[in-house]
TrEMBL record:
Species classification: Eukaryota, Metazoa, Chordata, Craniata, Vertebrata
Native source organism of the sequence: Prunella himalayana
InterPro entries: Nucleoplasmin, Nucleoplasmin_core_dom, Nucleoplasmin_core_dom_sf
Subcellular location: Nucleus, Nucleolus
Family: Belongs to the nucleoplasmin family.
Gene transcribed to yield this protein: Npm3
UniProt entry tagged with the keyword Phosphoprotein: yes
Binding partners and assembly: Interacts with NPM (via N-terminus). Forms a pentamer with NPM at a ratio 4:1 (NPM3/NPM). Two pentamers form a decamer.
Protein name: Nucleoplasmin-3
Purpose: Plays a role in the regulation of diverse cellular processes such as ribosome biogenesis, chromatin remodeling or protein chaperoning. Modulates the histone chaperone function and the RNA-binding activity of nucleolar phosphoprotein B23/NPM. Efficiently mediates chromatin remodeling when included in a pentamer containing NPM3 and NPM.
Length: 133
């Protein structure tokens, strides 16, 4: 699924979240952040606000865009786990954030190792011979 949002002086943040009761794994990958039509030649700082491994909120700047020197930044599918908030920390935009959302459904059955492999099923490797001089 494609994701896109626009951050402006009037809409400074956008939160992407999923249903907490959903039993799937969600990955949000950012591909590009760019200034769009009407942007001023000023620094536009975009932050991503999420949670760290200790479940504490953390804000990380991911882009600093300026029309005259860097109007676009490729984020090479920077992966995040929802919920995530995108915030225009400085500047008035408009800044477009684009990426994709992938849903991976969890299997209900648990993984069990198959210990019933016979020796015939196992591939035998030849022994390693010493190098000839």
């Amino acid at each position: 699924l494609l994701l896109g949002c626009e951050l402006t002086a009037t809409t400074k943040s956008y939160t992407f979240q999923v249903d907490e009761e959903d039993n799937s794994d969600h990955i949000l990958a950012l591909s590009v952040v760019c200034l769009t039509d009407g942007a001023k030649d000023e620094c536009n700082v975009v932050e991503v606000i999420g949670r760290n491994h200790e479940n504490q909120e953390i804000a990380v700047p991911v882009a600093n865009l300026k029309l005259s020197c860097q109007p676009l930044l490729s984020l090479d599918n920077f992966k995040l786990q929802p919920p995530v908030t995108f915030r225009l920390a400085a500047g008035s935009g408009p800044v477009h954030v684009a990426g994709w959302h992938r849903i991976m459904h969890r299997e209900d059955a648990s993984f069990e190792e198959d210990d019933d492999l016979s020796e015939e099923d196992e591939e035998e490797l030849p022994p390693i011979m010493p190098a000839k001089k």
